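Work Package 4 report. The design task specified in the project plan requires that, given a folded chain encoded as structure tokens, an amino acid be chosen for each position. We show below one input record used in the internal validation round.
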């Protein structure tokens, strides 16, 4: 029996929630059944070796212009050359080029939506997004909140949307050597793993830390990630005179080891698709404090505290009170471990496998 040839398209294969979840999916598919290729357009190739180790083929196709139509024709040529059975695009730029190219090449295509980006809601984007989505065989969303969002703003009929939650492998970590290495022993550790962008609103998080430090001087905030706001955030921490209590650790392949030694995970996002890092925090049994936006309440339930976005006082109080009350912290930690069990990696892979079977048999 011939293998099903599937090509995933994603803008970059750098560290990010969508990229890491694609790695999990592409790695987990049965290689006796699937021949898997990941096509991407640029970036720093941070996950390149991970994909290659998982026996996934990689194809980098670059374009001088981010949304140039030339890239569409490069994709069409490659699709026809490789004779793929299914195209699966992730994130808007991959949708824009990949979905159109797949339709020109006559290949069934599915698109996964990972985020409810604010710019989706302007009239031009609504027109583009709804047109692209009409060309797909199916739209996959990663939460019920995203399902409602794209039904409303992209006019996708409910019967053409399938919700598939992210899935994470159970991987308990413990690396107390990091506490010694970074002089974190006897400290109360708050962890944040996110790109340093407007969406993640680190400015509110830093102000919340300033507030919390007025009640407890032993709090240390670990910020793991890089992004365009890094220099401004470092300057803001100095301006608030809290820079001795903030460690900007940059991009770390061992980010989950820092999560493992932390007391609380905090994310102050202005919007969020699902937040793969929430599942990783739950896997470690970490209480989560996050904002009441997008899919976050749906994902966390009683495994964390939900606060108002941009409210540094509320966030600061949540940090202080949770650290003060060990029984409460332990209760939420136990809830976090239980909630993690609702997001098994194998279920996510199987739901995609079932979808691909339907597409190949033309039942979608």
């Amino acid at each position: 029996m011939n293998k099903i040839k599937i090509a995933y398209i994603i803008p970059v294969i750098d560290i990010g929630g969508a990229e890491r979840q694609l790695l999990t999916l592409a790695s987990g598919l049965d290689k006796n059944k699937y021949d898997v290729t990941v096509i991407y357009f640029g970036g720093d190739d941070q996950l390149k070796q991970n994909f290659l180790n998982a026996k996934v083929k990689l194809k980098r196709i670059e374009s001088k212009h981010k949304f140039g139509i030339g890239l569409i024709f490069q994709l069409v040529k490659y699709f026809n050359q490789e004779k793929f059975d299914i195209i699966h695009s992730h994130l808007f730029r991959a949708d824009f080029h990949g979905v159109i190219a797949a339709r020109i090449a006559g290949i069934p295509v599915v698109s996964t939506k990972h985020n409810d980006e604010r710019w989706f809601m302007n009239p031009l984007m609504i027109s583009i997004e709804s047109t692209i989505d009409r060309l797909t065989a199916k739209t996959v969303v990663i939460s019920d909140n995203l399902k409602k969002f794209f039904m409303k703003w992209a006019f996708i009929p409910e019967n053409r949307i399938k919700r598939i939650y992210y899935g994470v492998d159970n991987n308990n970590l413990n690396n107390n050597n990091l506490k010694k290495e970074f002089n974190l022993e006897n400290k109360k550790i708050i962890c944040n793993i996110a790109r340093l962008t407007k969406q993640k609103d680190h400015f509110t998080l830093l102000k919340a830390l300033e507030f919390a430090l007025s009640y407890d001087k032993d709090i240390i905030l670990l910020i793991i990630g890089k992004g365009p706001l890094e220099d401004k955030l470092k300057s803001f921490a100095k301006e608030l005179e809290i820079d001795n209590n903030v460690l900007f650790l940059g991009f770390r392949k061992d980010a989950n080891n820092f999560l493992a030694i932390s007391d609380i995970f905090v994310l102050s996002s202005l919007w969020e698709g699902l937040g793969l890092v929430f599942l990783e925090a739950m896997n470690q049994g970490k209480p989560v404090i996050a904002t009441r936006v997008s899919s976050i309440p749906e994902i966390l339930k009683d495994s964390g505290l939900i606060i108002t976005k941009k409210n540094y006082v509320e966030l600061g109080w949540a940090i202080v009170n949770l650290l003060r009350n060990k029984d409460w912290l332990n209760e939420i930690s136990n809830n976090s471990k239980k909630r993690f069990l609702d997001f098994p990696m194998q279920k996510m892979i199987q739901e995609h496998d079932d979808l691909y079977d339907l597409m190949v048999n033309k039942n979608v």
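The mean pLDDT is 93. Validation will be extended to a larger panel in the next phase.
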